[in-house]
Specification:
With 104 residues, the protein is of the alpha+beta class. It has one domain: 3-Layer(aba) Sandwich (Trna Endonuclease, Chain: A, domain 1), CATH 3.40.1350. The chain has four helices and seven strands, in the order αβββββαβααβ.
Length: 104
């Protein structure tokens, strides 16, 4: 895991018996601002719901470009949880609509 928020979300998913994966084979090609071809790897894949979750407390212009470009060039559902409170309040997949930003 890359952050304490990601650890908290993984624990929450386990508590709720929501199957998830964190496999770097989930990659979405995009072209970075510098023109290089790169791959975006969302933080979590929720297996039974066929959607990806990104845990992001701070957005930079580069990160925003990466996410927007990845979605624009690929077909996947991405929700972004942007606070620890959103993670703590998450109780079911239905809470994604209340606590997460749906990007695509």
């Amino acid at each position: 895991m890359d952050s304490s928020w990601e650890i908290a979300f993984a624990k929450k998913l386990d508590e709720l018996n929501i199957l998830w994966d964190r496999n770097k084979s989930y990659k979405f090609p995009y072209i970075a601002k510098d023109g290089k071809h790169r791959n975006y790897h969302p933080d979590f894949y929720l297996i039974d719901y066929d959607c990806f979750i990104e845990i992001k407390g701070y957005w930079t212009e580069e990160i925003r470009h990466k996410v927007d470009s990845s979605i624009e060039n690929n077909n996947f559902k991405l929700y972004v949880l942007e606070s620890l409170k959103a993670i703590e309040n998450f109780e079911s997949i239905n809470d994604l609509k209340a606590y997460a930003k749906f990007v695509q």
